[in-house]
Amino acid sequence: MVSTQEITTRGNASDAEAERLARVEGAAYRIRHHALNMGEVQGQGYVGQALGAADMLAAVYADQLRFRADDPEWEDRDRFLLSTGHYAIGHYAALAEAGIIPVKELETYGSDDSRLPMSGMSTYTPGMEISGGSLGHGLSIAVGAALGLRYQGSGSRVYNFLSDGELDEGSTWEAAMGAHHHHLGNLTAMVDINALQADGKTDTVLRTEPVTEKWQAFGWYAQRVNGNDVGALLAAFDNAAAQAAAVGRPSVILCDTKVGRGVPLLEDREKAHFMRIEEHEWQLCREQLTAGFEGKAAR
Amino acid sequence: MSTATTPKLKTSAMIASFADPGQKTASAPFGHALVKAAQVNDKIVGLTADLGKYTDMHIFAQAFPERFFQMGMAEQLLFGAAAGLAETGLVPFASTYSVFAARRAYDFLCLDAAEPNLNVNIVGGLPGLTTGYGPSHQATEDMAIFRGMPNLTIVDPCDSLDIEQAVPQLAASEGPTYLRLLRGNVPTVLDEYDYTFELGKAKVLRGGRDVVFISSGLMTMRALQAAEALAAHHVDVAVVHAPTIKPFDAATVLAELNTDRLAVTLENHSVVGGLFETVASAVVTAGLGKRVVPVALPDEFLDAGALPTLHERYGLSVQRVVAKVLAELG
Q: Which residue in A33, A141, A179, A230 is deepest, having the highest Cβ count within 10 Å?
């Protein structure tokens, strides 16, 4: 028998989950929209990656991360470390969505004297914790940050965003070993598996699969999800908190994503690390994005 | 010939210390200095990459086990993690051999620690020619590599006193630092002079009318010994110790160089990119038309062997320094 009270609680929980999902999906939509606007400023750039990773970034900033928008240096904040410096376009969009930088400032992206350089740097941008870009660094820094926070008795968590291309770097695996050795349950890594790197498809550049088994062998709690499914992402974070953090095990969420996600015109285009978009296409991209989002919301 | 009866020196000679027989030494001055600094500064933490016992970091690890992090034989992780620790407000001292810090982990030090100007303190063992293991372990070009890194302070201490006094100053200085570690039983030399280590300062240890030595690191010890030996040849030698290679105290050094004395630099480092070129660039920048004679390691991969043999072979021994000065003076 299920009591009335339990049903009510479940009903509330379900409402809360639906609200949570809608909040993150809305954030992801706006992050994509911001990214398209920034891409238009440059006429090109890492728009494909930003669109692909928008759901991951939204899940972090609209659901997981503890921060104060008006005080990016707040001592008790969680840390989000962007290892892939070129994803800065997506990260700036997320920082604007989070209220850490003004939306208006996004139009300076990649321009002279802007706080928003093409490759993310901690010394330029509020809320940018590290200077990424030399790939394979982020997870090592994350290990130190997680050790340092734990040693100082902080309950803050460390999130490291990296890409499948960075799995080529030996340093990523040095850090993976270190995190497991030091029982860093306060560390979560997110790997954007878009199967694309600078010289082509990941499996033609350097085979990294089987990715999940590699992380498991390194002692991590590893989950592989559709990184463009917000519900799956949130469930993975919940699992990680329950299964790994509690027992001092680092966790990794391996996110299969689609370059250009949310804009059919770009989803279908031949994939390239540095995607070219014609001048007249930007508005079309925005329209497709909005139509897709509104259509999904209506369903 | 005597070679048949004289036993060849072994590589293990001086492996733990380059002290002369009978010389006053202090044991593991870096480790003890770090413990002392950590007693008053609870932000100090220590890390190593499987070389704790060989960089005197084990002294700190024993004193503060909860503040010591073993990163394994993984230098990229070592320095990336040191940067991460510094990001959270801690003051890490991360030790390995100089070759691994400078050659293997450069990108991590440059972008994770130096670009954000974090208080990451690199402790490099076996700098220059302080091991007979050959090029895999001899960091003969570590300063040349590191001098190009913006924000990085570079310290080349002479002895145990320098190290003891430098450590708290490195912890207190804001950005990243690199200490050329002397480990094990380290000679104590500078206590006989009116000297204290000041980060960023060169100091005149002794005056002299005929020759001026500008030296850093263990070569200051040799410079002082050579100055004594040259006195017997009626050559009066001044010694200026410049332990901070970057930022360099050009004002003090140029004031000493701008005389008619023979100017000689002495360093435990390649002639390329170390103290000699630091001094030379200061001289040229100031417009001094002054000749400077380098005592330094050659621009070569060096031999393996016993340190006394190698120091003699490559010109770092007191005897070779004396001979070079006498030859210069004609």
A: A141
Asked if B80 and A137 come within 8 Å (Cβ–Cβ), the reply is yes
Segment B127-141, tens digit of pLDDT: 999 999 999 999 999
Predicted-assembly ipTM surpassing the 0.85 threshold: yes
Structure-block tokens of residue A99:
């209220």
Helices B75-87 and A170-181 sit at what angle, rounded to 10 degrees?
Answer: 60
Please answer whether residues B216 and B156 qualify as being in contact, where contact means their C-beta atoms are separated by less than 8 angstroms.
yes
Contacts 24+ apart (CB under 8 A), A272-279: A272/A48, A272/A196, A273/A46, A273/A196, A273/A197, A273/A198, A273/A199, A274/A44, A274/A45, A274/A46, A275/A44, A275/A45, A275/A46, A275/A47, A275/A48, A276/A44, A277/A39, A277/A40, A277/A43, A277/A44, A277/A47, A279/A43
Is B75 noted as a catalytic residue in this protein?
A: yes
* Domains recognised in chain A with CATH numbers: 4-298 (3.40.50.970)
Is the pLDDT confidence value at A192 over 60? yes
Residue B98 dihedral angles phi and psi, to the nearest 5°: -60, -35
Tokens 């950590």, located at residue: B38
- What are the CA-CA distances from residue A45 to residues A35, A40, A87, A94 (Å)? 10, 9, 10, 17
Write out pLDDT tens, residues B69-97: 999 999 999 999 999 999 999 999 999 99
Residue A142 to chain B, least CA–CA distance (Å) = 6
User: CA-CA distance, B193 to B184, in Å (whole number)?
Assistant: 23
Query: Are A174 and B77 within 8 A, CB to CB?
Result: yes
What pLDDT is attached to residue A233? 98
Q: Counting one residue from A and one from B, how many pairs have CB atoms under 8 Å apart?
A: 106
- Whether chain B has a CB inside 8 Å of the CB on A184: the answer is no
> A165 and A86 in contact (C-beta within 8 Å)?
no
- The alpha-carbon radius of gyration of chain A (Å, integer) is 19
Provide the pLDDT confidence category of residue A97 given band limits of 50, 70 and 90. Answer: very high
The CB-side HSE value for A228 (13 A sphere, CA atoms) comes to 18
How far apart, in whole angstroms, are the C-alpha atoms of residue B121 and residue B33? 14
User: What are the two backbone dihedrals, phi and then psi, of residue A118, each rounded to the nearest 5 degrees?
Assistant: -60, -35
Q: Is B175 on the interface with A (CB under 8 A)?
A: no
Pairing mode, if any, of strands B177-180 and B153-155?
parallel
pLDDT in tens, A123-138: 999 999 999 999 999 9
User: What DSSP assignment string belongs to A272-283?
Assistant: -SSEE--TTHHH
Cross-strand partners of B44: B91
Cβ <8 Å between B116 and A130: yes
Structure confidence at residue B5 as a pLDDT band (50, 70, 90): low
Q: Kindly tell me the burial class for residue A82, based on how many C-beta atoms sit within 10 Å of its own C-beta (0-12, 13-18, 19 or more).
A: buried
Contact B83 A141 (CB under 8 A): yes
pLDDT for residue B2:
46
Mean pLDDT score of chain A: 93
Task: Indicate whether A1 pLDDT > 50.
Answer: no
How distant, in Å, are the alpha carbons of A98, A145, A223, A240, B76 from that of A186?
Answer: 22, 10, 16, 10, 21
